[in-house]
Design brief:
Length: about 325
């Protein structure tokens, strides 16, 4: 019995020693940040800002790996199945961790069990926009025109189950309109179709809408959050336009595969905290139309993901949104 206990103790000590050694040497090679959307969109831009600053802080290269498809779920699945050593991370969002699990009948990962929360870092509000030259000059004018000609007009989105789709479908449910949905594989091609006049409307990230509005490439009617967007203070909210329950924004955060060593997860959380506190990071994110997420620890982030999973489930069911 003595020998059994002895070897069990030695085994435990060896495991702890390995974990400490791994933590002390982490990171000693490049880290892959999987962005589950194509290059060119807001999520990709946020991921590249994050990767560059983490590279500078941690002394190793953080490489963005775009794994697009199925509204972010292909990239999320790839990370869920990766080795849990801290060298493969996911840029998670409401799409991968709250919307897709409530929208898709079959999902190849569990957003609450297959990942460990590290830290949120940005908030991405949306704006209701139209192609250039559309005749409406206010939200209500736009809604009236759509109601007068149901199924005539179209809206583009970043894909089935994307935040841009859910945002528009939520508004349609509240307004009683009928638009034809044209999904694309990512924000960039969806936006190209809108600017070219091939589609009529879009829920576009507000930061992108700001610059396109200045260039005369889109018309902006309202933003999707309760408060006006910092870079378009003259644009009303959908709440102000009469849709008081419309409080919609995407969020971005970092998660790692489940069973990632706690010491490694803590190191990543510490690095993210330092990054979020940086005024340079705030300015960099605001330049692409994002607000920095309020400082939140990993435990609070996990609770937030769980609450978002529940909240978006209610939104999707109430709006009767279905995966096409």
């Amino acid at each position: 019995m003595y020998f059994i206990v002895k070897y069990l103790v030695l085994g435990c000590l060896a495991t702890v020693s390995f974990g400490l050694t791994h933590a002390q040497s982490y990171p000693n090679r490049s880290i892959k940040l999987v962005v589950p959307w194509p290059a060119g969109g807001t999520t990709d831009a946020a991921g590249r800002i994050l990767a560059q600053r983490l590279s500078d802080q941690m002394g190793v290269q953080v490489i963005v790996d775009n794994k697009a498809g199925a509204a972010g779920t292909i990239g999320a699945e790839s990370v869920a199945r990766s080795v849990a050593d801290g060298y493969t991370l996911l840029l998670a969002s409401a799409e991968t961790h709250a919307i897709a699990p409530n929208l898709r009948l079959k999902l190849s990962y569990d957003p609450l069990k297959d990942f460990v929360a590290i830290s949120p870092f940005a908030i991405n509000p949306f704006a209701l926009v139209s192609k250039p030259g559309f005749a409406a000059n206010s939200v209500q004018d736009l809604i009236n025109q759509i109601k007068a000609q149901p199924d005539k007009f179209t809206y583009s989105s970043a894909g089935l189950g994307s935040a841009s789709q859910i945002g528009m479908e939520t508004l349609q449910s509240l307004a009683g309109t009928r638009l034809l949905h044209v999904p694309f594989q990512g924000q960039a091609p969806a936006l190209t179709s809108l600017i070219a006049g091939q589609t009529d409307f879009q829920m576009l990230p507000a930061g992108s809408a700001t610059e396109l509005r200045k260039a005369g490439k889109v018309k902006v009617y309202a933003v999707s959050t309760k408060n006006r967007f910092f870079d378009m203070p003259d644009v009303p909210t959908l709440t102000e336009a009469g849709y008081s329950s419309m409080n919609f924004a995407n969020w971005f955060g970092i998660v790692a595969p489940a069973n990632t060593p706690g010491v490694v997860a803590h190191r990543l959380e510490t690095e993210m905290t330092q990054l979020i506190k940086s005024s340079d990071a705030l300015m960099a994110f605001q330049r692409i139309g994002l607000d920095v997420f309020p400082l939140t620890n990993a435990t609070e982030f996990q609770r937030f993901i769980e609450s978002e999973h529940s909240r978006w489930g209610v939104v999707i069911r109430n709006a009767k949104i279905q995966s096409e």
